[in-house]
UniProtKB/TrEMBL annotation:
InterPro entries: LMF (IPR009613), LMF1/2_C (IPR057433), LMF1/2_N (IPR057434). Belongs to the lipase maturation factor family. Keywords: Endoplasmic reticulum, Glycoprotein, Membrane, Transmembrane, Transmembrane helix. It comes from the Eukaryota. PANTHER family: LIPASE MATURATION FACTOR (PTHR14463), LIPASE MATURATION FACTOR 2 (PTHR14463:SF5). This is Lipase maturation factor 2. The keyword Lipid biosynthesis does not apply.
Amino acid sequence: DVLLLECGFIAVCASPCSTAATPFAAGVSVMSFRLLAFKLLFCSGICKLASGDQKWSSFTAMNYHYWTQPLPNFVSWHSYWGGNKRLQAIGAVTFEILGPLLILFGRWGRIVAFFCFVLLIVSIYVTGNYGFFNILSCVVCLALLDDSLLLFKFPSPLENASVLQRATESLVAVLLGCVAGSFYILFSLTSVALFLKLWQKPLLEPPALCAQLYGELAPLHACNLYGLFASVTTSRYEVVIEELHLVEDTSTHPPTTRETWVELDFLYKPGDVDRRPPWLWLGHMPRLDWRLWFLPLRLARVVNLAIRDGASPAAVSAALQQGAPSLYPAWWPVLLARICRRQPEVLALLGPQRNIDLARAPCPRGLRVSLFDFRFRPPENCPLYAAFFPEGMPALTPQEIQEIEEELQNWEVGDWWMRRRHRTIDLLSIRSSPKGGADAGLAENSNES
């Protein structure tokens, strides 16, 4: 999103100046996009090294990336269980750091940099679902090419213009050139502040003017720092929502009713262990599924900060069970409430369900929100416990193998994923809403939670 905002800012400020009669202003506009392409890739490479993440310094990041990224697809599964992932990590860092430097070496350097960038961006698209990021990045990189390499040209609107029109356009060209030049200076100075902040070194503090410009533009996201996959998550916890319903048990005589938990499915995020991870069409950005990937990370961050600030693990656990509002983003309780109300627009975001017809189902008696530990299921020629060793299988004794296989009894194994319940983080009752329908309300602490 911030890349889209920055592209829009450059387009609004510089592109109106870019006409055939204003070559200087047009050049400034192209240079702004080239600087953005340089910043996008170079900062992403440097962030991997400056973040201090040992997975990047040891080039084992790709052993985790494929199965812990927000929305993996089925190619992610094949990429994880095949290929030299150490070589892939080295190649990614090399492309992102050395590739942008080629932009400084004239026309042919920019051409080579363009193909390096596109190769990297296409590989990201093939092995993961990232919405419009891939196509937007490729459009930014088009600025590295010149007209002779493009298959099309936009004709000048002044080819058949009169002398008066050309004279007027020339005067406008000078004014627009000054505007575009001023914008490029502003954009460059702000980028200097970002480049220096990237290293996180006292000796590389940005000049006061650059830091001030960055501070003024930061609320607009007009000039941003990019760090694609600067740190790699080493586990995957998925939020799973379950509804409590009364069902008729016909196995007894006479038939009785019993309570059962029904899991809700989402369109794109992992859930059903037998469902193939979907490959989304280019540009599609499922916001809800994307945000749900960040929810466990948010919970972990809040808990870690609370413990660091002196809260006891028992107090943090109690806060989790009681559903402290500060733990969750503002949209989370709204989502749960509207699922309970069976709002059609929200049910459409969840998609078809395996276990229940939400549109016809009654309001649930309660909700249970749990964290599940997910991992890619190994292929048929590998033991299941290979999923526990992302960096390669160590030498195991027979006793260790037996202990691991006993642990596997707690895991649900499917065709593509394997998972186990990590913990229940919320147990909610449903209360009637004054406007009708239902709302999700916190239940009393339960032994299960």
